[in-house]
Every structure is written in structure tokens, then in C-alpha cells.
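The instructor's notes for this session suggest beginning with a concrete chain rather than abstract definitions. Hand out the sequence below and ask the class to guess, before any prediction is shown, which regions might be ordered.
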Amino acid sequence: MRPGTVVTLVLRPRTDDKRWTGVGSSAPALVVPSGWHLGADGTAHATLRCAGTRGGAARVTVSAKEPDVAGAPQGVFTLDVSVVPYPQDG
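After discussion, reveal the predicted structure:
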């Protein structure tokens, strides 16, 4: 991805009893989850924005858990993102 790029990640409803609960980034200085919406049918929509001007890598994790069950959600989907800065004119 390039700095300033916006990507929408669409995750279909899960077939088990778990539901999508949220999205996070291992490097928010590079990739920021800027939007999250869970549809009535269970489809999740996450908007990811590539921030900053430097290059690097980030791991985006989407978590899920069973409703009405205690405990923290677990990461069940990961997306590795590489950020490549625009070339500098010398």
C-alpha cells in the first residue's frame, strides 16, 4: 500500500457461533483502522487507512467471539500489510 491509501475489508458472516467483534493494527502509525460496521446479517466492514509517509509493515487482526460468553475475543483473521513510501525526487 502507499501512504494515503484507503482499503475496505469485507468479511462474510461466520458459519460457526462466533461473531466479528472488532479490528486492530499492530502498527497504528502505519495502518489505522478508521471504520468498523457490523451488518444485521453478520457481515463486517472494516476501513483501513494507510497513514504516515515512511515504509514498514503492520499486521491487521480481526477478532471474533461467541455472543453471551465471557472472555476476550480472539484474533481469527490476519492481514499482513506492507507500506511502501513514494519515491523521493533528489
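Then share the key points. DSSP finds no helices and six strands in the chain. Residues 1 and 83 are 5 Å apart (CA to CA).
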